[in-house]
Each structure stands twice: as C-alpha cells, then as structure tokens.
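As practice, study what follows.
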Amino acid sequence: MRHGEAAPMQADDAARNLTQIGHDEAEKMGIWLNKNFHPDALLVSPYIRAQQTANGVAKNNAFTFSETTPDVIPEGKPQVAADYLETLIATHPECNTWLVVSHMPIVSYLVDQLSPGNMPIFNTGAVAVINYDEQTQRSSYLSINAPANV
C-alpha cells in the first residue's frame, strides 16, 4: 500500500503529514481491506505519512503482528525489503495476510521483486494485491486497487 495523500514536499520528507484527503483514503482502504482480505500483519515505513496511513487502516483491522522498518522508505532497496518480508512471513506462520505501508517508488519496485514483470504505479492510498506461495517463494500479482475505485 502506498500512503495516503500527503502535504507537499518539504526539507524534512520523513516528517510530512497526511492531508485530510490522505486520512480519508487510509480509512476507506482500511474498510476495503477488512472486507476483502482481513490483513493480520503490518510492515510500515517510519515516515510520518506512512505511520498515519497505517493508523487509519488499523481503525478497521486487527493486526496480530506489526513492525516499523526503514527497509520500506522511499529510497529503500527493493531486494532487501522483499527478502525481509519473506523472512517475516516464514517466521510468523500465524499471520496469513500481510500489509506493507510504504511509498513510491519502492512500492512499485517491491511488487516487481515479488512478482517479476509487474511494476504498477500506485495512486495515493492504493493497494496492490499479491498472492504469495510460501512453499515455492513465488508470487502472483493480482490487481491494484485505489480509493477512488473501491
């Protein structure tokens, strides 16, 4: 998931807040996620706008596992993020559906790392749905869903 709409760029990119539209996008997608996927694990960027998005999603979802990691910041390395996510999946078998709240461009690159050849462009608040097979460590990109379309 890409974070919701944020305030314009500023000197401290990590401190940018969501706009009211961004908060609304996060809550709307939280309702949609709960209705369709019931995510039970969360991996989120430490940047304020990603944290605020995760909080908005959490209003309608109960996460049994939640972690903040710098691996999914905008300039993060997609291979490192994918490897870390796969490690978390393997070490937390009690969690069936994972939500990663991050930023462009790493969200697009992360999808490509997990499902080569698929690199969607994320609108703010958009969620890419990927089916991951832990046995084969292969993923299938299914769709991208934006707040305006759910």
